Amino acid sequence: MAIRISGFYTGLDIDQLVRDLMQARRAPLDRLLQKKTLIEWQREQYREANAKLVDFRNNKLFNFGLEANIKARKAIVTGDASAVSAKALAGANAGSLTIKVKTLATAATAKSSGTVSDSAKKKLTELSYLDPETNEVTTLPVDTGKNTITIQINDVSISVEKDATIEDLVSAINASDAGVEAFFDEVSGRMSLTAKKTGAGAISLSQEFEKVFRLTDKTNGQSAELEINGISTTRDSNTFTVNGVEITLYGAGTVNIQIGSDVDKIVETIKSFINEYNAVVDYLNKKLSEERFRNYAPLTSAQKEEMTEKEIELWEEKAKSGLLRRDSTLTTLLNDMRLALYTAVDVGGGTISLHQLGIETGTWEQKGKLVIKDEAKLRAAIEADPDKVAALFTQLSSATDEKVKKSPTNPDSGLFQRLSNAIMTALDQLATKAGTSRYSADTNVSFNPSSLMGEELRQLELRIAQMNQRLTQIELRYYKQFTAMEVAVNRFNAQSGSLSSFWS
Known about the structure:
Blueprint: H1 14-64, H2 67-70, E1 73-79, E2 84-88, E3 95-103, E4 109-111, E5 129-130, E6 137-138, E7 142-143, E8 148-153, E9 156-161, H3 166-175, E10 180-185, E11 190-195, H4 207-212, E12 217-219, E13 224-228, E14 231-235, E15 239-242, E16 245-249, E17 253-261, H5 263-289, H6 301-305, H7 309-320, H8 328-342, E18 345-347, E19 350-352, E20 359-361, E21 370-372, H9 375-384, H10 386-394, H11 402-405, H12 415-434, H13 452-503
Antiparallel strand pairs: 1-17, 2-16, 3-13, 3-17, 4-11, 4-12, 5-6, 7-8, 8-9, 10-11, 13-14, 15-16, 18-19, 20-21
Helix pairs in contact: 1-5, 1-12, 1-13, 5-9, 8-12, 9-10
């Protein structure tokens, strides 16, 4: 490292002089750094916009288009409602069902007919069964090689340690795939096994297990017996599905179930869509019209040193404003989204539009936001033809020409597909330009460095590195020149001193 002589002989503040000289030299570098900062800020704003668009397209639109939301059904039960309940699932067929319940489905059981133990903590090896007729004693089989006790329930082997207790065995049974729920009552000293599923059948047990635990009180499971629209039938479970309707039986009785559109749920879905769409439109409008303050360039390091944190924050807020103002990609997207919603959809030989549902655009100041101006009209349209209303939003185009299929005014496409296609086009363009993700709404996902902005930043970083290298060389040259001046002054002073001493 070069040794610098800092004004020892001249009395000059050489470090300050070099800093002053380098300040002018650094001006081009500061401009490059400011340009790099602006691009990085702009790229971050593109990523924010991208995340909102991905979330709206992949999450919001997808959920709104589910049958359970846009084609929601409801089941109305009349008659003995304590006997049967009904829930319309997605895709339930409109119509009616009459259900007459005769008997419920029951589960097979096996219970102890006598006391097994006075404690659940008792070890299994202490349990036995004495046959009163043969005086034969039965115990649970112990595998001395593995030091385990194994029983079988419904042909499933369940093993526990040799020193296991009744409580351990109950836990092992309940955790197994035997399909039964075990319970031991310490008060009565008895065990019960209940099949986890109802329906015809019995619980099969290994002989030793059945004897030791006195599990001889057995009841076979039964299927539910009922009539559906006059047809006698059975079900192994008290909960089952018919024509997209989930039926649950509670007891004997007769009910009528009417399945129709859940107008309230569909209206709620449409309102949620409008709210989310308006939020995206509002965000895009604000970004595209945000004022640009060109006199507020990114601050240099030197400038930040002279400002407080609050002053820096306020300055950068101005500097970041308007970076997406009149952006061509977002402007085109906003226009395509509006066209997608304003164009009628061909459905079943006719057309349907949002206007026919009482949905229109707001005032001029709202810049394309949607409002429900006549909710009664919307509800009437759903009640009259719920499938046609659903098609307005969810119909998929049958066009084979990709350009036609993706057009925001394609009459064959439902509104959700049009919006999805328009947003996907914008996401592709943002990915190419800014390196954002087409499919992730996570703002922490890394940028693609091979994007246009990524390449621009790479070139800027190369120029910044080269300029830093040149500035370092210039700074060293300045110090060498001042050092040479110091040496010359020192030599002059030495000569002057010698001459003074010679004449004195």
